[in-house]
Design goal:
The complex is a heterodimer of chains A (537) and B (319). Chain A is α+β, with helices and mostly antiparallel strands. Chain A has helices spanning 2-25, 73-82, 130-141, 150-156, 179-183, 193-198, 251-259, 271-278, 307-316, 319-326, 358-367, 385-400, 412-421, 441-445, 461-472, 476-493, and strands at residues 53-58, 87-89, 95-97, 100-105, 111-116, 157-164, 167-172, 213-219, 223-228, 242-247, 265-266, 283-297, 332-333, 375-379, 404-408, 426-431, 496-509, 512-513, 534-535. In chain A, strands 1, 8, 9, 10, 11, 12, 13, 14, 15, 16 and 17 form an 11-stranded mixed sheet that branches. A 4-stranded antiparallel sheet of chain A has the order 4-5-7-6. In chain A, strands 2-3 form a two-stranded antiparallel ribbon. Helix content of chain B is 75%, strand content 0%. Chain B has helices at residues 2-29, 34-38, 47-57, 63-75, 89-124, 129-143, 146-158, 181-215, 218-225, 230-260, 262-267, 273-282, 286-314. In chain B, helix 12 (273-282) runs antiparallel to helix 13. In chain B, 43% of the residues are buried. Classes of the chains: A alpha+beta (537), B mainly alpha (319). Chains A and B meet through helix 1, helix 7 and helix 13 of A and helix 2, helix 3, helix 5, helix 7 and helix 8 of B.
Chain lengths: 537, 319
């Protein structure tokens, strides 16, 4: 027994000593991650004063690197480094060419002829040709790929022809004003035909594109490492030799990683951390207001089928209450339509269409035949605090006008299944259009089967025809008029009740240069500016 | 003895079968659709793509067919392919399990190093001020949730808010041992300590009460009366008897730790098995959920069995 005791004691002492010794290794140097970064010295971009590695802590695990599936905003940061499309948003927030050198639109407004950059290459060294563009756009239509925007492209795309090796002609079924907007999506990028054919069309297992960074390694659930592509078509870019994306789902852990220097840049900064970091000179905070919180309704039957009831709810919801409770006071109330001024000529004329007026809400309920209110269920989700808290504030607001609402809080995956089937009465939603052009509203207000971003069973002939007219009209002034009518009609019928804009924020250390959080919904394409991003020594 | 071991093993196998069947059924009965999540939730997936994927995954088959197929494959050691990671489940688990075992093992070791001596000391000083301090500390230790303790440690030792003149530790993450052993261990220290303190407190309390029991035994009075030196009485007789139940508790904790590290893994972004399971549940990744739970319960059942057998060896009455 004695010897055993002694042995245990000596082993434990050794363990303690080893641990202390190892902790001592880190020294006082809180910035070095302690990782021997072994980036290849191939790229010529190395300059004095820039770090070789940029570490980005991202909020979501990467389920797939298949470019044509939109699997989350955090993953788009990686996808925009690996892949590029014909067109993309630029750091100034305007659309510019990427793989395309130039393009022309035919007189019939239906043919688009793109010239491809002479120096545009894929990571395997091959030139990007018209055949690759044709293959890529047709790949979006391929059911087996599961492309997120398959039906959007299938509805407008007639045919794609390779005129010569560097010229491609796209013909649409009918004119489509937002077509170029759709080409800027990180899900409509150009991939290599030869590569896909020799790799079973599996770009998740074999990511290869033409973006500023090439794929290096992927440790599932932990990190993805990319290395600068020396033949990128923008000379001198990217600015950093390698990027390491570290998967860090917990918001506080992400903020800690930035504060201890384990990460240079983080995404989805929580509202509480935005406020704290804005006050601290050691950090840069990049804020863009884009997504909005709203209520969707199942309008098939019952009180919610009556537009007056939905309008009553629009007057009843305490928007500032939602902002205070769910977003730490950060955000902007929406009493009109969620369009930023300037988009498709919007001048803000509907910004005070509704107001916070519970007396008016009660009067509307009375007019609709529900003077004593009714019972209803609100579907939200416990997975995201902001969804849960929004539901609770809305529940409270509705109670004040006599509507007795019960909040249901399943996990996110159940919530998605139910919302896509229209299995709800009132749904709390946080969303953003996919493109800047007002055509984003088609997905939200067009009649049809219930889907995630529509109010279940909502259908209005006038809205349908306005949406179609807006899409197929090319003249900008005419489109302004069309969308003006659309906004009015949507607010009158209130298939949605819009609550507030929320912030989409990134934060970095003050040594990070070049990163831009693109304005409005383009914030979700901000990964495009990682080619300009570097960390100073 | 052989009969005892065989019986315990048979029970373990039966338990595993029952657990995996229940898991399969509950996982498939859960609301939520993996296909919708796989095709991206930021936009509406294309209905045709949904159908195609459902067929490809075999989710259009009757549940009984799916169950039988899964069981037959599982018996051959094939747990299927993860929906979200696109690799065999065994491979996903294979890369995660060692990390969780490492974290759990180091924590348990630390907990024993702290908990056992303090428990003994506290029992020997029963009623004195130092005992009061130690038992209060232990109550605090068992009641602080690991996520509070974890963030507290980060605030103190990573962010170093008080500006102490100490080497700061990384707040989160994981580096492969082969890549950089020192970076690997630096990242292990805080999560291991956060997990260990709570465990140490419960081990200490267990040791203390078990020691008190052993100290009050009549044999101890007899030994003292015989004139045996006090340290001999304590080390040879009291501790030896007192540690039997403690060993059991420690063994069981190991099983608990495999699934119980989830909060710690989240706070410190430690890519272990528990966070994999949480992700799998959120994604409704059926094969991965089933695989993770199967492995976790195997470890749990196995440690229980080993503890039972050890107990049987130590105390023949328990056989």
């Amino acid at each position: 027994m004695k010897t055993i005791c002694r042995r245990i004691l000596s082993v434990s002492l050794a363990a303690v000593m080893a641990l202390t010794a190892l902790s001592g290794c880190s020294g006082n140097n809180s910035n070095s991650s302690g990782v021997a970064s072994s980036t290849p010295e191939s790229s010529a971009q190395s300059q004095v004063g820039k770090k070789d590695e940029l570490v980005v802590a991202i909020s979501s695990d990467v389920s797939t690197l298949e470019p044509m599936v939109q699997s989350g905003q955090a993953i788009r940061l990686i996808k925009t480094c690996l892949y590029r499309g014909l067109m993309a948003y630029q750091a100034d927030g305007k659309i510019g060419t990427e793989i395309a050198d130039s393009y022309e639109i035919g007189d019939d407004d239906k043919t688009y002829t793109f010239k491809i950059k002479q120096n545009a290459k894929f990571h395997d060294g091959s030139d990007i040709t018209a055949e690759d563009v044709k293959f890529s756009l047709e790949r979006i239509l391929d059911e087996s790929v599961g492309a997120t925007f398959r039906s959007d492209f299938a509805n407008v795309l007639d045919k794609v022809e390779a005129v010569d090796t560097k010229t491609v002609k796209i013909t649409l079924k009918e004119p489509c004003a937002p077509f170029i907007d759709y080409l800027t999506l990180p899900e409509s990028v150009i991939v290599s035909k030869a590569w896909c054919e020799s790799h079973k069309n599996d770009l998740n297992a074999n990511p290869m594109g033409s973006g500023p960074y090439t794929f290096t390694s992927w440790d599932k659930g932990r990190e993805i490492v990319l290395t600068a592509f020396s033949d990128f078509y923008k000379p001198g870019k990217p600015e950093t030799k390698s990027i390491r994306f570290v998967i860090t789902p917990d918001a506080t852990t992400r903020a800690n990683a930035l504060q201890t220097g384990d990460a240079d840049l983080i995404d989805y900064v929580a509202a509480k951390d935005i406020t704290a970091m804005e006050k601290d000179d050691n950090y840069k905070v990049y804020v863009s207001e884009a997504p909005f919180m709203c209520l969707q309704f199942n309008v098939k039957s019952g009180p919610l089928a009556n537009p007056k009831v939905r309008q009553a709810i629009a007057y009843a919801v305490d928007r500032q209450g939602v902002i205070n409770t769910a977003f730490m006071g950060r955000g902007t109330q929406i009493f009109g339509f969620p369009t930023q001024k300037g988009e498709n000529g919007y001048d803000g004329k509907y910004d005070s269409y509704f107001s916070f007026d519970q007396e008016k809400a009660k009067a509307l309920l009375k007019e609709a035949g529900y003077p004593d209110g009714f019972k209803i269920k609100i579907l939200s989700s416990s997975t995201y605090d902001m969804h849960k808290q929004t539901a609770i504030v809305v529940q409270d607001s509705l109670k004040k006008i006599g509507i007795d609402a019960e909040v249901e809080l399943p996990d996110w995956s159940t919530r998605i299944e139910r919302s896509n089937k229209g299995d709800y009465e009132i749904l709390v939603s946080g969303t953003a259009g996919n493109i800047v052009d007002m055509d984003w509203t088609t997905n939200y207000f067009e009649s049809g089967e219930p889907r995630m971003n529509s109010s279940a069973w909502f259908s209005d002939a006038e809205i349908d025809s306005l949406l179609k007219e807006g899409r197929t009209t090319i003249d900008a002034a005419k489109r302004e008029e069309i969308y003006d009518k659309l906004r009015k009609r949507v607010l009158d019928l209130s298939p949605f009740v819009f609550i507030n804009y929320r912030e989409q924020a990134f934060a970095s250390s003050n040594k990070v240069e070049g990163f831009v959080n693109l304005p409005g919904v383009v914030t979700y394409n901000s990964g495009l500016t990682l080619e300009d991003t570097y960390v100073t020594e | 003895m052989t009969k005892f071991i065989v019986r315990r093993s048979a029970i373990a196998v039966l338990l595993l079968f029952v657990v995996s069947s229940i898991v399969f059924l509950t996982v498939h009965m859960m609301p939520g659709d993996p296909v919708l999540l796989m095709l991206g939730t930021d936009s509406n997936p294309d209905p045709q793509a949904v159908e195609a994927l459902r067929r490809e995954l075999g989710l259009d088959q009757p549940i009984l067919t799916q169950y039988v197929n899964w069981m037959l494959n599982a018996l051959q050691g094939n747990l299927g392919t993860s929906y979200s990671e696109h690799v065999p489940v065994m491979q996903s688990i294979g890369s995660r399990l060692p990390r969780t075992l490492e974290l759990a093992g180091v924590s348990l070791l630390l907990a024993c190093i702290i908990g056992l001596p303090l428990g003994v000391l506290s029992a020997l000083r029963r009623g004195k001020f130092s005992d009061l301090v130690m038992t209060t500390g232990a109550s605090l230790g068992t009641s602080i949730p690991v996520y509070v303790l974890g963030y507290l440690l980060i605030i103190l030792f990573s962010l170093n808010v008080f500006g102490w003149n100490i080497p700061t530790l990384p707040s989160s993450g994981y580096v492969n041992f082969s890549k950089s052993p020192s970076a690997h261990f630096q990242r292990l220290i805080l999560p291991a300590v956060a997990l260990a303190l709570g465990l140490a407190a419960s081990i200490m309390r267990m040791t203390r009460s078990s020691m008190l029991d052993a100290l009050s035994a009549e044999s101890v009075r007899a030994l003292r009366a015989k004139g045996l030196p006090e340290h001999n009485v304590i080390i040879r007789h009291v501790i030896r008897n007192a540690f039997i139940p403690v060993v059991t508790v420690i063994g069981l904790q190991m099983g608990n730790l495999i699934g119980g590290t989830v909060l710690c893994e989240t706070v410190f972004n430690w890519p272990g098995l528990a966070t994999l399971l949480v992700k799998a549940i959120n994604q409704r990744d059926y094969p991965l959920i089933q695989g993770c739970i199967l492995v976790m319960s195997s470890v749990f059942i196995l440690t229980n069995m080993v503890v039972d057998i050890i107990y049987g060896v130590l105390d023949p009455r328990a056989r």
